UniProtKB/TrEMBL annotation:
Cellular component, GO, one term: plasma membrane
Family assignment from sequence similarity: Belongs to the Lgt family.
GO terms, molecular function: phosphatidylglycerol-prolipoprotein diacylglyceryl transferase activity
Job of this protein: Catalyzes the transfer of the diacylglyceryl group from phosphatidylglycerol to the sulfhydryl group of the N-terminal cysteine of a prolipoprotein, the first step in the formation of mature lipoproteins.
Transmembrane segments: 20-36, 56-76, 88-112, 176-194, 200-218, 230-255
UniProt keywords, alphabetically: Cell membrane, Lipoprotein, Membrane, Transferase, Transmembrane, Transmembrane helix
Protein's recorded name: Phosphatidylglycerol--prolipoprotein diacylglyceryl transferase
Chief place of localization: membrane
Organism (species): Desulfobaculum bizertense DSM 18034
Enzyme nomenclature, EC number: 2.5.1.145
Location in the cell: Cell membrane
Domain of life assignment: Bacteria
Amino acid sequence: MLVYPHFDPIAIHIGPLAVRWYGLMYLVGFVSGWLLGRHRAKQPGSGWTTEQVDDFVGYIMLGVVLGGRLGYILFYDLPVYLHDPLQIFAIWRGGMSFHGGLVGVMLCFWLYGRKTGKSFFEVADFIAPFVPIGLGAGRIGNFINGELWGRVTDSPLGMIFPGYGAGPYPRHPSQLYEAALEGLVLFVLLYWYSSKPRPTRAVAGLFGVGYGLARISCEYFREPDIQLGFLFGNWLTMGMLLSLPMVVIGAWLMYSAYHPRNTA
């Protein structure tokens, strides 16, 4: 059985400033996505310039942070933040929602599309392949923080998280499962798929299907948030509930991309 290798959540101190691993993981995601976006923009027929990618990074950062934080507050722990509103700003403790961040980013797609004359899905199709990098990095940040651990298991992969509220029982290191599936695997799939011209909406649709299925799969190993528990019986979680529409909408987007006459 494995034992969680306790990490100091603070990576480095710069004078009185404490730089946390969780924040650095977000920085890794943003910088990696930015560099890959610039690389893609230089390819013939991309429809983007490197200057546009540079400009859009600021939009993405704002959408992810504000949307992710507000989404977590609304979907997962509203009573706590109503009781102590100052906790809203304690982002270094974790508490970010992918689905909230997605809504924030989608708003950025629309705003930036209006600014540049691109359609919503032209922006979404270009950006979607880079998103899993940030997702994977964020899950590594969760692992370093010792949060979002999985359900109790007798699997050889079971890990004990002493001192993190997980009790003395071995649990699935579900943060790493998500980092692998929602991060690495989804990135490889989307980057390969988008390396050739695809109909508008197809790449965004594949992201929706891919992320939704990956998240739902990982939720079977992840301990539900303690303040919510299971929403139905002993299997449905908030993560599953929020991801299921992504699969349905993503599948429809892919179908409509390849069969526009049937969906007009």
